[in-house]
Amino acid sequence: MPSSQPERAADVGALSAIAQRLCGEPVQSVQACRASGNNRVYRIQTRHALFALKTYGSVEGDDRDRLGHEFDGLRFVAAADVGAAVPAAIAVDRPERCALYAWIDGEAVVDHDVHDITAALDLAASLHRARQTPGAEHLPAATEAVFTAADLIDQIERRIARLASVAPGEPELAAFLAAELRPEFVRRASHLSDGGRHAVLDRTRCTLSPSDFGFHNALRGPDGSLTFIDFEYFGWDDPVKLAADFLWHPGMRLSAPERRAFLEGVTALYGLDPSFAARLYLHFPLYGIRWCLIILNEFVPQLWARRAFAGKGGDWEAAKSEQLTKARATLAAVRSYREGEFG
User: Fold this and answer.
1) What's the pTM?
2) Which segments of the chain does DSSP mark as H helices, in order?
């Protein structure tokens, strides 16, 4: 995990005390790592080992148990023998909203290829098998899990409403939502039958998903292997959502061979469900619209404040402009989608 400059002395003292309680030995140094969207991660050095201390921020304005999803989820997958592709969860301080993980010696994944797609598919397959492990039935649903088409439609409508509430002060955003995104959403949603919208996906067809899954949340070790990090939204979900989110995620650019390899892999993995391919074809553009709205999160003041906590603030106006450009590009890809053609 790449590191940056040490924190202020007051912060270091508090973090050091928490880390010492969790690892059970004196802490020699605390160093901030790269910022992520909702949290902060610190490199903890003791005499005998390195650890990653993750702080999850305030619960104010965020009722999701990101710590619980991640720490408890990683504890479960370790017991289910998923393998070394995920971090080891060591100890947790729930009142302080902190958890200690094994340190991953690796760098951000800048370049990737079809061999890395194989690594991603291997983890997805391990998690899919782990759903049959005793205790899996007690795991929570993934954050914003989709078990019916209506769930997906509702999520999109809620995100549109949240952005619409700030749109009066954001004329470019307001124009984009009204003239571009809403019409495409209405068009794509009209392809869903009334009965099909509320059909509930049987648990046997669901999978265990990291939820925010991709190379943007992976580290490459010195030997070239990948470790997938960030399980803050982990839980039960539709494998179609895992597949669609991987293909749409703006945090990584997949080549045509990578996209083909991933599609072939997930079709083989989840294909025992005869409705998997049909759901993926039908829901794929709706997930793209959902990603347009996620990209625009920077327009929501509470979400921008959370990013600022994680060290990813900066020029808010510039960030909003950049994200609107990205959202337009994603919507253009949605418009060009034809059933079964994934670019």
Assistant:
1) 0.91
2) 9-23, 66-79, 114-130, 149-166, 171-176, 182-189, 194-197, 239-248, 256-270, 276-295, 301-309, 316-336
